[in-house]
Amino acid sequence: MSDFVLLATTGLALGALYFLAASGLSLIYGLMGVLNFAHGAFMMVGAYAGWLTMTDLPPSLSVGVRLLVAAVVAVALGAAVGVVVEVVLIRPLYRHHIQQVLVTVGLSLASVAAAQGIWGADPRPVEKPDWMSGTTSLLGARLPTDRFVYVVAALAVLAGLLALLRLTRLGLIIRAGVENRTMVQALGIDVQRTFTIVFAIGGAAAALAGILYAQYAGSVSPAQGGSLLIFAFIVVVIGGMGSIVGTAVAAVAVGLVQQLANYYAASGVGDLSVVLLLALVLLLRPTSLKGATA
Amino acid sequence: MTSPETSPETSARPVDGGHTAVLTPVLTLDDVHVRYGGSHVLQGVTFEVPATGVTALLGRNGVGKTTTLKAVLGLAPRTGSIAVRGNPIETQATTRIVRDGIGYVPEDREVFAGLTVDENLRLVDPERGIEAPIVRDLFPDLIARRAQRAGTLSGGQQQMVSLARVLLRDNTVLLIDEPTKGLAPKLVTEVADVLAEVARMTPILLVEQNLALVRRIADTVVVLDAGRVVHRGRADALVADAELTRGLLGVSMRREGAA
Protein backbone atom coordinates (compact mmCIF):
# COMPACT_ATOMS: atom_id res chain seq x y z
CA MET A 1 0.00 0.00 0.00
CA SER A 2 2.72 2.47 0.96
CA ASP A 3 4.56 1.64 -2.26
CA PHE A 4 1.47 2.44 -4.23
CA VAL A 5 0.92 5.74 -2.42
CA LEU A 6 4.53 6.72 -3.03
CA LEU A 7 4.33 5.77 -6.70
CA ALA A 8 1.00 7.51 -7.16
CA THR A 9 2.30 10.68 -5.52
CA THR A 10 5.40 10.68 -7.68
CA GLY A 11 3.20 9.99 -10.71
CA LEU A 12 1.01 12.93 -9.79
CA ALA A 13 4.07 15.13 -9.31
CA LEU A 14 5.46 14.14 -12.70
CA GLY A 15 1.99 14.74 -14.16
CA ALA A 16 2.07 18.21 -12.62
CA LEU A 17 5.39 18.95 -14.33
CA TYR A 18 4.08 17.55 -17.62
CA PHE A 19 1.02 19.76 -17.30
CA LEU A 20 3.16 22.87 -16.79
CA ALA A 21 5.22 21.94 -19.83
CA ALA A 22 2.22 21.02 -21.95
CA SER A 23 -0.32 23.75 -21.12
CA GLY A 24 1.40 26.41 -23.20
CA LEU A 25 2.11 23.93 -25.98
CA SER A 26 -1.56 23.00 -26.09
CA LEU A 27 -2.83 26.60 -26.17
CA ILE A 28 -0.28 27.60 -28.80
CA TYR A 29 -1.24 24.70 -31.05
CA GLY A 30 -4.95 25.11 -30.41
CA LEU A 31 -4.99 28.82 -31.13
CA MET A 32 -2.34 29.21 -33.80
CA GLY A 33 -1.80 25.76 -35.25
CA VAL A 34 1.90 26.07 -34.40
CA LEU A 35 3.73 22.94 -33.23
CA ASN A 36 6.27 24.69 -31.05
CA PHE A 37 9.32 22.44 -30.85
CA ALA A 38 11.17 25.32 -29.17
CA HIS A 39 9.08 24.73 -26.06
CA GLY A 40 11.92 22.61 -24.65
CA ALA A 41 14.14 25.67 -24.99
CA PHE A 42 11.64 27.65 -22.88
CA MET A 43 11.97 24.99 -20.17
CA MET A 44 15.73 25.10 -20.42
CA VAL A 45 15.65 28.89 -20.07
CA GLY A 46 13.66 28.44 -16.87
CA ALA A 47 15.95 25.77 -15.49
CA TYR A 48 19.20 27.61 -16.21
CA ALA A 49 17.86 31.04 -15.25
CA GLY A 50 16.74 29.50 -11.97
CA TRP A 51 20.04 27.78 -11.35
CA LEU A 52 22.09 30.90 -12.18
CA THR A 53 19.89 33.14 -10.05
CA MET A 54 20.15 30.79 -7.09
CA THR A 55 23.93 30.63 -7.49
CA ASP A 56 24.34 34.39 -7.86
CA LEU A 57 22.13 35.46 -4.97
CA PRO A 58 24.03 36.00 -1.66
CA PRO A 59 24.36 32.72 0.26
CA SER A 60 23.18 34.56 3.37
CA LEU A 61 19.66 34.22 1.95
CA SER A 62 18.02 30.89 2.68
CA VAL A 63 17.75 28.37 -0.15
CA GLY A 64 13.96 28.68 -0.08
CA VAL A 65 14.06 32.46 -0.58
CA ARG A 66 16.61 32.11 -3.35
CA LEU A 67 14.46 29.46 -5.04
CA LEU A 68 11.44 31.74 -4.85
CA VAL A 69 13.31 34.68 -6.39
CA ALA A 70 14.78 32.32 -9.00
CA ALA A 71 11.30 31.09 -9.89
CA VAL A 72 10.10 34.67 -10.43
CA VAL A 73 13.14 35.44 -12.60
CA ALA A 74 12.72 32.18 -14.54
CA VAL A 75 9.01 32.78 -15.21
CA ALA A 76 9.60 36.39 -16.31
CA LEU A 77 12.45 35.36 -18.59
CA GLY A 78 10.39 32.46 -19.98
CA ALA A 79 7.58 34.86 -20.85
CA ALA A 80 10.03 37.28 -22.47
CA VAL A 81 11.65 34.52 -24.54
CA GLY A 82 8.16 33.37 -25.58
CA VAL A 83 7.32 36.85 -26.83
CA VAL A 84 10.61 37.19 -28.72
CA VAL A 85 10.21 33.77 -30.37
CA GLU A 86 6.65 34.61 -31.45
CA VAL A 87 7.48 38.05 -32.81
CA VAL A 88 10.82 37.23 -34.45
CA LEU A 89 10.45 33.62 -35.62
CA ILE A 90 6.79 32.60 -35.72
CA ARG A 91 5.03 35.74 -36.96
CA PRO A 92 6.93 36.02 -40.26
CA LEU A 93 6.17 32.34 -40.91
CA TYR A 94 2.48 32.46 -40.03
CA ARG A 95 0.65 29.92 -42.26
CA HIS A 96 3.95 28.27 -43.27
CA HIS A 97 3.72 25.24 -41.01
CA ILE A 98 6.70 23.26 -42.30
CA GLN A 99 8.97 26.27 -41.97
CA GLN A 100 7.65 26.89 -38.44
CA VAL A 101 8.51 23.34 -37.47
CA LEU A 102 11.98 23.69 -38.99
CA VAL A 103 12.71 26.99 -37.29
CA THR A 104 11.47 25.84 -33.87
CA VAL A 105 13.38 22.53 -34.14
CA GLY A 106 16.42 24.56 -35.16
CA LEU A 107 16.03 26.89 -32.19
CA SER A 108 15.66 23.94 -29.87
CA LEU A 109 18.83 22.26 -31.17
CA ALA A 110 20.76 25.54 -31.14
CA SER A 111 19.72 26.37 -27.58
CA VAL A 112 20.82 22.95 -26.32
CA ALA A 113 24.15 23.33 -28.12
CA ALA A 114 24.57 26.84 -26.71
CA ALA A 115 23.88 25.64 -23.17
CA GLN A 116 26.39 22.80 -23.65
CA GLY A 117 28.96 25.25 -24.97
CA ILE A 118 28.56 27.65 -22.07
CA TRP A 119 27.88 25.38 -19.10
CA GLY A 120 28.95 21.96 -20.34
CA ALA A 121 26.93 18.86 -21.10
CA ASP A 122 27.16 17.43 -17.58
CA PRO A 123 24.36 17.95 -15.10
CA ARG A 124 24.98 20.80 -12.67
CA PRO A 125 23.70 20.21 -9.14
CA VAL A 126 20.89 22.47 -7.95
CA GLU A 127 20.34 23.37 -4.31
CA LYS A 128 17.09 22.24 -2.79
CA PRO A 129 15.52 23.83 0.30
CA ASP A 130 15.67 21.57 3.36
CA TRP A 131 11.92 21.51 3.80
CA MET A 132 11.50 20.27 0.22
CA SER A 133 14.13 17.56 0.71
CA GLY A 134 12.30 16.10 3.68
CA THR A 135 9.43 13.66 3.70
CA THR A 136 5.81 13.83 4.75
CA SER A 137 3.92 10.86 6.13
CA LEU A 138 0.63 10.10 4.47
CA LEU A 139 -1.44 6.88 4.46
CA GLY A 140 1.47 4.97 5.91
CA ALA A 141 3.92 6.13 3.27
CA ARG A 142 6.83 8.55 3.65
CA LEU A 143 6.51 10.87 0.68
CA PRO A 144 9.13 13.35 -0.51
CA THR A 145 7.71 16.79 0.31
CA ASP A 146 8.82 18.35 -2.98
CA ARG A 147 6.19 16.26 -4.83
CA PHE A 148 3.47 18.33 -3.19
CA VAL A 149 5.15 21.56 -4.27
CA TYR A 150 4.96 20.53 -7.95
CA VAL A 151 1.32 19.52 -7.61
CA VAL A 152 0.38 22.76 -5.84
CA ALA A 153 2.25 24.82 -8.47
CA ALA A 154 0.47 23.01 -11.30
CA LEU A 155 -2.93 23.40 -9.61
CA ALA A 156 -2.28 27.12 -9.19
CA VAL A 157 -1.36 27.46 -12.88
CA LEU A 158 -4.40 25.37 -13.89
CA ALA A 159 -6.71 27.56 -11.79
CA GLY A 160 -5.10 30.70 -13.17
CA LEU A 161 -5.45 29.53 -16.77
CA LEU A 162 -9.06 28.46 -16.28
CA ALA A 163 -9.88 31.82 -14.70
CA LEU A 164 -8.15 33.58 -17.58
CA LEU A 165 -10.01 31.51 -20.18
CA ARG A 166 -13.45 31.68 -18.59
CA LEU A 167 -13.56 35.09 -16.90
CA THR A 168 -11.59 37.50 -19.08
CA ARG A 169 -12.00 39.02 -22.51
CA LEU A 170 -8.58 37.69 -23.52
CA GLY A 171 -9.78 34.22 -22.52
CA LEU A 172 -12.94 34.63 -24.57
CA ILE A 173 -10.87 35.55 -27.62
CA ILE A 174 -8.53 32.58 -27.01
CA ARG A 175 -11.47 30.16 -26.71
CA ALA A 176 -13.05 31.54 -29.87
CA GLY A 177 -9.69 31.51 -31.65
CA VAL A 178 -9.05 27.86 -30.75
CA GLU A 179 -12.35 27.05 -32.49
CA ASN A 180 -11.95 29.27 -35.54
CA ARG A 181 -9.28 31.93 -35.61
CA THR A 182 -10.15 33.11 -39.13
CA MET A 183 -13.66 33.98 -37.97
CA VAL A 184 -12.25 35.85 -34.97
CA GLN A 185 -10.31 38.04 -37.39
CA ALA A 186 -13.36 38.35 -39.62
CA LEU A 187 -15.17 39.88 -36.64
CA GLY A 188 -12.52 42.59 -36.49
CA ILE A 189 -10.66 41.24 -33.47
CA ASP A 190 -6.88 41.55 -33.40
CA VAL A 191 -5.90 37.95 -32.90
CA GLN A 192 -2.21 38.70 -33.51
CA ARG A 193 -1.86 40.33 -30.10
CA THR A 194 -3.49 37.27 -28.56
CA PHE A 195 -0.91 35.01 -30.25
CA THR A 196 1.90 36.97 -28.59
CA ILE A 197 0.24 36.82 -25.17
CA VAL A 198 -0.35 33.07 -25.50
CA PHE A 199 3.32 32.57 -26.35
CA ALA A 200 4.23 34.61 -23.25
CA ILE A 201 1.94 32.47 -21.09
CA GLY A 202 3.33 29.28 -22.64
CA GLY A 203 6.91 30.46 -22.12
CA ALA A 204 6.23 31.37 -18.49
CA ALA A 205 4.57 28.02 -17.67
CA ALA A 206 7.33 26.10 -19.45
CA ALA A 207 10.02 28.02 -17.55
CA LEU A 208 8.24 27.17 -14.30
CA ALA A 209 8.22 23.53 -15.42
CA GLY A 210 11.93 23.84 -16.16
CA ILE A 211 12.94 25.20 -12.76
CA LEU A 212 10.71 22.71 -10.91
CA TYR A 213 11.96 19.77 -12.98
CA ALA A 214 15.50 20.81 -12.07
CA GLN A 215 14.41 20.61 -8.41
CA TYR A 216 12.89 17.18 -9.03
CA ALA A 217 16.03 15.93 -10.78
CA GLY A 218 18.38 17.73 -8.36
CA SER A 219 20.33 19.17 -11.29
CA VAL A 220 20.15 21.12 -14.53
CA SER A 221 21.40 19.75 -17.82
CA PRO A 222 20.97 20.84 -21.43
CA ALA A 223 19.00 17.73 -22.39
CA GLN A 224 16.33 18.10 -19.70
CA GLY A 225 14.03 20.33 -21.75
CA GLY A 226 13.99 17.94 -24.67
CA SER A 227 13.09 14.88 -22.62
CA LEU A 228 10.29 16.75 -20.85
CA LEU A 229 9.07 18.05 -24.23
CA ILE A 230 8.48 14.55 -25.60
CA PHE A 231 6.10 13.73 -22.77
CA ALA A 232 4.52 17.17 -23.05
CA PHE A 233 3.72 16.49 -26.70
CA ILE A 234 2.19 13.13 -25.82
CA VAL A 235 0.10 14.82 -23.13
CA VAL A 236 -1.12 17.48 -25.57
CA VAL A 237 -2.15 14.92 -28.18
CA ILE A 238 -3.97 12.75 -25.62
CA GLY A 239 -5.62 15.74 -23.97
CA GLY A 240 -6.83 17.33 -27.18
CA MET A 241 -4.96 20.20 -28.73
CA GLY A 242 -6.12 23.47 -27.22
CA SER A 243 -7.99 22.03 -24.25
CA ILE A 244 -6.56 23.01 -20.86
CA VAL A 245 -8.72 20.64 -18.80
CA GLY A 246 -7.94 17.82 -21.25
CA THR A 247 -4.23 18.60 -20.92
CA ALA A 248 -4.46 18.43 -17.11
CA VAL A 249 -6.26 15.07 -17.16
CA ALA A 250 -3.87 13.63 -19.74
CA ALA A 251 -0.82 14.88 -17.80
CA VAL A 252 -1.98 13.09 -14.65
CA ALA A 253 -2.75 9.92 -16.63
CA VAL A 254 0.64 9.92 -18.31
CA GLY A 255 2.50 10.57 -15.02
CA LEU A 256 0.64 7.79 -13.19
CA VAL A 257 0.89 5.22 -15.98
CA GLN A 258 4.59 5.90 -16.35
CA GLN A 259 5.38 5.51 -12.63
CA LEU A 260 3.13 2.52 -11.93
CA ALA A 261 4.21 0.57 -15.02
CA ASN A 262 7.87 1.21 -14.28
CA TYR A 263 7.47 -0.30 -10.83
CA TYR A 264 4.90 -3.06 -11.27
CA ALA A 265 6.00 -4.29 -14.72
CA ALA A 266 9.66 -3.58 -15.27
CA SER A 267 11.90 -0.57 -15.32
CA GLY A 268 11.57 1.12 -18.71
CA VAL A 269 8.09 -0.24 -19.36
CA GLY A 270 6.68 3.07 -18.09
CA ASP A 271 7.79 5.06 -21.11
CA LEU A 272 6.58 2.31 -23.43
CA SER A 273 3.20 2.27 -21.65
CA VAL A 274 2.84 5.99 -22.23
CA VAL A 275 3.37 5.53 -25.94
CA LEU A 276 0.85 2.66 -25.89
CA LEU A 277 -1.61 4.92 -24.08
CA LEU A 278 -1.09 7.50 -26.82
CA ALA A 279 -1.72 4.90 -29.52
CA LEU A 280 -4.84 3.70 -27.72
CA VAL A 281 -6.24 7.21 -27.43
CA LEU A 282 -5.54 7.93 -31.08
CA LEU A 283 -7.28 4.71 -32.13
CA LEU A 284 -10.32 5.22 -29.96
CA ARG A 285 -10.64 8.99 -30.11
CA PRO A 286 -8.89 10.30 -33.22
CA THR A 287 -10.69 13.64 -32.86
CA SER A 288 -8.46 14.51 -29.92
CA LEU A 289 -5.83 15.34 -32.53
CA LYS A 290 -8.02 18.09 -33.92
CA GLY A 291 -8.57 19.63 -30.54
CA ALA A 292 -11.55 20.62 -28.55
CA THR A 293 -12.55 23.85 -26.88
CA ALA A 294 -10.16 25.69 -24.62
CA MET B 1 -19.76 32.65 -70.26
CA THR B 2 -23.48 32.54 -70.72
CA SER B 3 -24.28 36.14 -71.53
CA PRO B 4 -22.57 39.42 -72.27
CA GLU B 5 -22.79 42.20 -69.71
CA THR B 6 -26.30 43.32 -70.37
CA SER B 7 -26.43 46.66 -68.62
CA PRO B 8 -23.22 47.66 -66.93
CA GLU B 9 -24.41 51.23 -66.32
CA THR B 10 -27.32 50.16 -64.13
CA SER B 11 -25.26 49.54 -61.03
CA ALA B 12 -24.61 53.25 -60.60
CA ARG B 13 -28.28 54.12 -60.85
CA PRO B 14 -30.06 54.81 -57.59
CA VAL B 15 -32.45 52.06 -56.77
CA ASP B 16 -34.90 53.81 -54.53
CA GLY B 17 -37.11 55.30 -57.21
CA GLY B 18 -34.73 57.82 -58.68
CA HIS B 19 -35.38 60.91 -56.58
CA THR B 20 -31.94 60.72 -54.93
CA ALA B 21 -28.90 61.95 -56.78
CA VAL B 22 -26.50 59.28 -58.03
CA LEU B 23 -24.72 58.02 -54.93
CA THR B 24 -21.07 57.12 -54.65
CA PRO B 25 -20.90 53.33 -54.56
CA VAL B 26 -20.17 51.99 -51.09
CA LEU B 27 -17.94 49.21 -52.41
CA THR B 28 -15.99 49.07 -55.66
CA LEU B 29 -14.15 46.08 -57.08
CA ASP B 30 -11.95 46.68 -60.10
CA ASP B 31 -10.21 43.85 -61.93
CA VAL B 32 -9.98 41.63 -58.85
CA HIS B 33 -8.17 38.32 -59.32
CA VAL B 34 -7.82 35.43 -56.88
CA ARG B 35 -5.54 32.48 -57.47
CA TYR B 36 -5.44 29.44 -55.19
CA GLY B 37 -2.43 27.35 -56.09
CA GLY B 38 -2.91 26.54 -59.76
CA SER B 39 -6.56 27.59 -60.07
CA HIS B 40 -7.55 31.07 -61.17
CA VAL B 41 -10.81 31.48 -59.25
CA LEU B 42 -11.58 35.16 -59.85
CA GLN B 43 -10.51 36.41 -63.27
CA GLY B 44 -10.88 40.17 -63.19
CA VAL B 45 -14.08 40.80 -61.26
CA THR B 46 -15.34 44.37 -61.60
CA PHE B 47 -18.55 45.73 -60.10
CA GLU B 48 -19.91 48.29 -57.68
CA VAL B 49 -22.22 47.98 -54.71
CA PRO B 50 -24.61 50.95 -54.49
CA ALA B 51 -24.80 52.87 -51.23
CA THR B 52 -28.36 51.75 -50.54
CA GLY B 53 -30.34 48.55 -50.64
CA VAL B 54 -29.41 44.96 -51.30
CA THR B 55 -27.10 43.90 -54.10
CA ALA B 56 -27.41 40.19 -54.82
CA LEU B 57 -24.33 38.34 -56.05
CA LEU B 58 -25.61 35.39 -58.06
CA GLY B 59 -24.23 32.53 -60.09
CA ARG B 60 -24.02 28.79 -60.23
CA ASN B 61 -22.08 26.82 -57.63
CA GLY B 62 -18.33 27.30 -57.79
CA VAL B 63 -18.27 30.46 -59.91
CA GLY B 64 -16.49 32.50 -57.22
CA LYS B 65 -19.25 34.19 -55.20
CA THR B 66 -17.89 33.28 -51.77
CA THR B 67 -14.35 33.92 -53.00
CA THR B 68 -15.43 37.42 -54.04
CA LEU B 69 -16.58 38.17 -50.49
CA LYS B 70 -13.39 36.67 -49.08
CA ALA B 71 -11.30 38.73 -51.48
CA VAL B 72 -12.96 41.92 -50.22
CA LEU B 73 -12.23 40.88 -46.64
CA GLY B 74 -8.64 39.90 -47.29
CA LEU B 75 -9.42 36.26 -46.47
CA ALA B 76 -8.39 35.20 -49.98
CA PRO B 77 -5.10 36.17 -51.68
CA ARG B 78 -6.19 38.86 -54.12
CA THR B 79 -4.85 41.36 -56.64
CA GLY B 80 -6.68 44.30 -58.18
CA SER B 81 -8.40 47.30 -56.61
CA ILE B 82 -11.02 47.18 -53.87
CA ALA B 83 -12.33 50.38 -52.31
CA VAL B 84 -14.86 51.27 -49.65
CA ARG B 85 -16.39 54.69 -50.32
CA GLY B 86 -13.41 55.39 -52.54
CA ASN B 87 -10.79 54.40 -49.94
CA PRO B 88 -8.57 51.55 -51.13
CA ILE B 89 -8.55 48.53 -48.78
CA GLU B 90 -6.85 45.89 -50.92
CA THR B 91 -3.60 46.03 -48.97
CA GLN B 92 -5.16 46.04 -45.52
CA ALA B 93 -5.44 43.11 -43.13
CA THR B 94 -8.80 41.49 -42.42
CA THR B 95 -9.06 42.86 -38.88
CA ARG B 96 -8.53 46.44 -40.11
CA ILE B 97 -11.01 46.02 -42.98
CA VAL B 98 -13.72 44.73 -40.66
CA ARG B 99 -13.09 47.46 -38.08
CA ASP B 100 -13.34 50.04 -40.83
CA GLY B 101 -16.90 48.96 -41.45
CA ILE B 102 -17.23 45.80 -43.53
CA GLY B 103 -19.41 43.32 -41.67
CA TYR B 104 -19.18 39.66 -42.68
CA VAL B 105 -21.73 36.91 -42.17
CA PRO B 106 -20.08 33.78 -43.56
CA GLU B 107 -21.60 30.82 -45.31
CA ASP B 108 -22.53 28.10 -42.78
CA ARG B 109 -22.95 30.74 -39.98
CA GLU B 110 -19.59 29.88 -38.33
CA VAL B 111 -20.79 30.66 -34.83
CA PHE B 112 -18.39 29.62 -32.07
CA ALA B 113 -20.03 26.36 -31.09
CA GLY B 114 -18.40 26.04 -27.67
CA LEU B 115 -19.24 29.61 -26.65
CA THR B 116 -22.64 30.67 -25.35
CA VAL B 117 -24.91 32.92 -27.39
CA ASP B 118 -24.00 35.83 -25.14
CA GLU B 119 -20.27 35.09 -25.46
CA ASN B 120 -20.57 34.97 -29.24
CA LEU B 121 -22.05 38.47 -29.12
CA ARG B 122 -19.66 39.79 -26.49
CA LEU B 123 -16.73 38.96 -28.73
CA VAL B 124 -17.86 41.89 -30.88
CA ASP B 125 -19.51 44.04 -28.21
CA PRO B 126 -17.83 43.28 -24.85
CA GLU B 127 -19.96 45.80 -22.97
CA ARG B 128 -23.48 44.94 -24.04
CA GLY B 129 -23.50 41.56 -25.78
CA ILE B 130 -26.99 40.10 -25.64
CA GLU B 131 -28.26 43.29 -23.96
CA ALA B 132 -27.63 45.43 -27.05
CA PRO B 133 -30.83 47.13 -28.30
CA ILE B 134 -30.45 45.63 -31.78
CA VAL B 135 -30.77 42.12 -30.30
CA ARG B 136 -34.01 43.07 -28.54
CA ASP B 137 -35.35 44.67 -31.72
CA LEU B 138 -34.38 42.07 -34.33
CA PHE B 139 -33.52 38.84 -32.50
CA PRO B 140 -35.69 38.69 -29.35
CA ASP B 141 -35.69 34.87 -29.42
CA LEU B 142 -31.98 34.82 -28.66
CA ILE B 143 -32.39 36.52 -25.29
CA ALA B 144 -33.92 33.44 -23.65
CA ARG B 145 -31.06 31.37 -25.07
CA ARG B 146 -28.27 33.68 -23.95
CA ALA B 147 -26.54 31.03 -21.80
CA GLN B 148 -26.96 28.20 -24.32
CA ARG B 149 -23.91 27.01 -26.24
CA ALA B 150 -24.23 28.21 -29.82
CA GLY B 151 -23.34 24.74 -31.13
CA THR B 152 -26.56 23.35 -29.69
CA LEU B 153 -28.80 25.88 -31.48
CA SER B 154 -30.80 25.06 -34.61
CA GLY B 155 -29.52 26.26 -37.97
CA GLY B 156 -31.95 29.17 -38.00
CA GLN B 157 -30.99 30.26 -34.50
CA GLN B 158 -27.31 30.00 -35.39
CA GLN B 159 -27.98 32.22 -38.39
CA MET B 160 -29.58 34.78 -36.10
CA VAL B 161 -26.50 34.69 -33.83
CA SER B 162 -24.25 35.12 -36.85
CA LEU B 163 -26.32 38.10 -38.07
CA ALA B 164 -26.72 39.66 -34.62
CA ARG B 165 -22.99 39.36 -33.99
CA VAL B 166 -22.10 41.45 -37.01
CA LEU B 167 -24.86 44.02 -36.45
CA LEU B 168 -23.47 44.91 -33.03
CA ARG B 169 -20.91 47.03 -34.84
CA ASP B 170 -21.65 50.02 -37.08
CA ASN B 171 -21.09 48.78 -40.60
CA THR B 172 -20.56 50.69 -43.83
CA VAL B 173 -21.56 47.65 -45.87
CA LEU B 174 -22.47 44.07 -45.01
CA LEU B 175 -21.25 40.99 -46.88
CA ILE B 176 -23.70 38.16 -46.25
CA ASP B 177 -23.08 34.70 -47.69
CA GLU B 178 -26.07 32.39 -48.27
CA PRO B 179 -27.94 33.21 -45.06
CA THR B 180 -30.89 30.95 -45.90
CA LYS B 181 -28.87 27.88 -46.92
CA GLY B 182 -30.36 24.76 -45.39
CA LEU B 183 -33.15 26.60 -43.57
CA ALA B 184 -36.84 25.64 -43.52
CA PRO B 185 -39.18 27.94 -45.52
CA LYS B 186 -40.56 29.62 -42.38
CA LEU B 187 -37.03 30.46 -41.22
CA VAL B 188 -36.13 31.68 -44.71
CA THR B 189 -38.97 34.19 -44.35
CA GLU B 190 -37.73 35.25 -40.91
CA VAL B 191 -34.19 35.76 -42.16
CA ALA B 192 -35.54 37.69 -45.16
CA ASP B 193 -37.52 39.96 -42.83
CA VAL B 194 -34.40 40.70 -40.81
CA LEU B 195 -32.34 41.36 -43.94
CA ALA B 196 -34.99 43.70 -45.34
CA GLU B 197 -35.03 45.59 -42.05
CA VAL B 198 -31.23 45.79 -41.87
CA ALA B 199 -30.99 46.95 -45.50
CA ARG B 200 -33.00 50.05 -44.63
CA MET B 201 -29.94 51.27 -42.73
CA THR B 202 -26.94 49.48 -44.23
CA PRO B 203 -26.24 48.43 -47.81
CA ILE B 204 -25.81 44.67 -48.25
CA LEU B 205 -23.89 42.56 -50.74
CA LEU B 206 -25.76 39.28 -50.56
CA VAL B 207 -24.75 35.90 -51.96
CA GLU B 208 -27.98 33.96 -52.35
CA GLN B 209 -29.30 31.01 -54.32
CA ASN B 210 -32.96 31.53 -53.42
CA LEU B 211 -34.38 33.62 -56.27
CA ALA B 212 -37.67 34.26 -54.51
CA LEU B 213 -35.73 35.89 -51.72
CA VAL B 214 -33.64 37.83 -54.22
CA ARG B 215 -36.81 39.09 -55.87
CA ARG B 216 -38.21 40.15 -52.53
CA ILE B 217 -35.30 42.05 -51.02
CA ALA B 218 -32.64 42.71 -53.67
CA ASP B 219 -32.52 45.89 -55.74
CA THR B 220 -29.50 45.19 -57.90
CA VAL B 221 -27.97 41.94 -59.12
CA VAL B 222 -24.47 41.00 -60.19
CA VAL B 223 -24.08 37.59 -61.83
CA LEU B 224 -20.78 35.73 -61.90
CA ASP B 225 -19.76 32.92 -64.17
CA ALA B 226 -16.37 31.21 -64.18
CA GLY B 227 -14.78 33.96 -62.12
CA ARG B 228 -16.09 36.88 -64.19
CA VAL B 229 -19.07 39.25 -64.02
CA VAL B 230 -21.45 38.32 -66.82
CA HIS B 231 -24.47 40.44 -65.93
CA ARG B 232 -25.34 43.51 -63.89
CA GLY B 233 -28.75 45.05 -63.60
CA ARG B 234 -31.93 45.47 -61.64
CA ALA B 235 -33.06 42.47 -59.61
CA ASP B 236 -36.71 42.65 -60.68
CA ALA B 237 -35.75 42.76 -64.35
CA LEU B 238 -33.58 39.66 -64.05
CA VAL B 239 -36.05 37.65 -62.03
CA ALA B 240 -38.92 38.59 -64.36
CA ASP B 241 -37.00 37.36 -67.39
CA ALA B 242 -37.23 33.57 -67.16
CA GLU B 243 -35.11 33.11 -70.26
CA LEU B 244 -32.30 35.27 -68.92
CA THR B 245 -32.52 33.70 -65.45
CA ARG B 246 -32.23 30.23 -66.93
CA GLY B 247 -29.39 31.29 -69.16
CA LEU B 248 -27.39 32.90 -66.37
CA LEU B 249 -28.20 30.70 -63.42
CA GLY B 250 -29.57 27.49 -64.90
CA VAL B 251 -32.72 27.79 -62.79
CA SER B 252 -36.12 29.37 -63.03
CA MET B 253 -38.37 30.89 -60.38
CA ARG B 254 -40.76 27.94 -60.27
CA ARG B 255 -38.16 25.63 -58.80
CA GLU B 256 -37.23 28.00 -56.00
CA GLY B 257 -38.71 27.99 -52.52
CA ALA B 258 -40.72 30.81 -51.01
CA ALA B 259 -39.27 33.78 -49.23
Automatic annotation (TrEMBL), chain A:
GO biological process: amino acid transport
Record family assignment: Belongs to the binding-protein-dependent transport system permease family. LivHM subfamily.
GO-annotated cellular components: plasma membrane
Membrane-spanning ranges: 6-27, 34-53, 65-89, 101-121, 148-174, 195-216, 228-256, 263-284
UniProt cross-references to Pfam families, sorted A to Z: BPD_transp_2
InterPro entries noted in UniProt: ABC_transp_permease, BCAA_transport_permease
Main localisation: membrane
Designated name of the protein: ABC transporter permease
Superkingdom per UniProt: Bacteria
Membrane topology designation: Multi-pass membrane protein
Keyword annotations from UniProtKB, A to Z: Amino-acid transport, Cell membrane, Membrane, Transmembrane, Transmembrane helix, Transport
Gene Ontology MF terms in the entry: transmembrane transporter activity
Localization annotation: Cell membrane
From TrEMBL, chain B:
One Pfam family cited in the UniProt record for this chain: ABC_tran
InterPro entries in alphabetical order: AAA+_ATPase, ABC_transporter-like_ATP-bd, ABC_transporter-like_CS, BCAA_Transport_ATP-bd_LivF, P-loop_NTPase
SUPFAM superfamilies hit by this protein: P-loop containing nucleoside triphosphate hydrolases
Gene Ontology biological-process entries: L-amino acid transport
Keywords recorded for this protein, A-Z: Amino-acid transport, ATP-binding, Nucleotide-binding, Transport
Domain of life: Bacteria
GO molecular function: ATP binding; ATP hydrolysis activity; branched-chain amino acid transmembrane transporter activity
Domain ABC transporter, chain residue ranges per copy: 27-251
Keyword NADP applies: no
Disulfide bond listed as a keyword: no
Protein species of origin: Intrasporangium oryzae NRRL B-24470
UniProt-recorded name of the protein: Branched-chain amino acid ABC transporter ATPase
Family: Belongs to the ABC transporter superfamily.
